[in-house]
Amino acid sequence: MKTFMAKSEEVKRDWWVVDATGKPLGRLAAEVAKLLRGKHKPIFTPHVDTGDHVIVINADRVKLTGNKAEDLIYWHTQYPGGLRSVTYGKLRQTRPVHLVERTIKGMLPHNRLGAAVYRKLKVYGGSEHPHAAQQPKLYEIQE
After folding, report:
1. What is the secondary structure of 24-58 as a DSSP string?
2. What angle do CA 49, 114, 75 make, to 5 degrees?
3. What share of the chain has pLDDT > 90, as a percent?
4. Which of 19, 41, 117, 136 has the maximal Cβ count within 10 Å?
C-alpha cells in the first residue's frame, strides 16, 4: 500500500468565518492555524498547502485571559536603541487586527509554506467582511 501524498492542484479549499467575540486569543489562534494548514482534513500532508481560507471577524472583541493585558510584546527596529514594546491590552485597543494576525502567524511554520498559508488569512475588526461571494461557512470554536 502506497503512502498518500496530496498535490496542491487537487486540494479543494473551503472558506470559513470565525467570530472572535469572547474567544480567548490563544485558542482562537490555534484553531485558525489548524484550519489554515489543513490539519482538520484527512488529506493533510506536511509539505503541501492543504488548508482553507479563513476570515476572522470581530477581532476587536477577542478576550485576553489572566494578566495577558499587562504582558509586553517586544520588537526591535534594527536601529541603535530601537527596542520597542507595547502591552497586549493597548495593542487590542489601537490595532486589534494586528494583534490577531501576529498571534496566528506565530503558530504557522516559519518558512515559505508558512508564508503561503498566511496569505489565506483575512482579519477584520468589525462584523462586516467583503467575502460574501465566496459563501463562507461559520466555524464554531468551543471555549
Report:
1. BHHHHHHHHHHHHHTTTSTT--TTS----EEEEE-
2. 165
3. 95
4. 117
Architecture of domain 13-89+97-139: Alpha-Beta Complex (3.90)
**pTM of the shown model:** 0.93
Report the candidate in 59, 63, 69 with the shortest Cα–Cα distance to residue 89: 69
How do the residues of the chain divide into helix, strand and coil, expressed in percent and rounded to 5? 35, 20, 45
Cα separation, 44 vs 62, in Å, equals 29
The residues pairing with 84 across neighbouring beta strands, listed in sequence order, are 75
Report H helices in the chain: 25-37, 88-94, 96-105, 112-118
Nearest alpha-carbon partner for 15 in 127, 141, 139, 102: 139
Residues 6+ away with beta carbon under 8 Å from 14:
52, 53, 136, 137
At 142 the pLDDT is 83
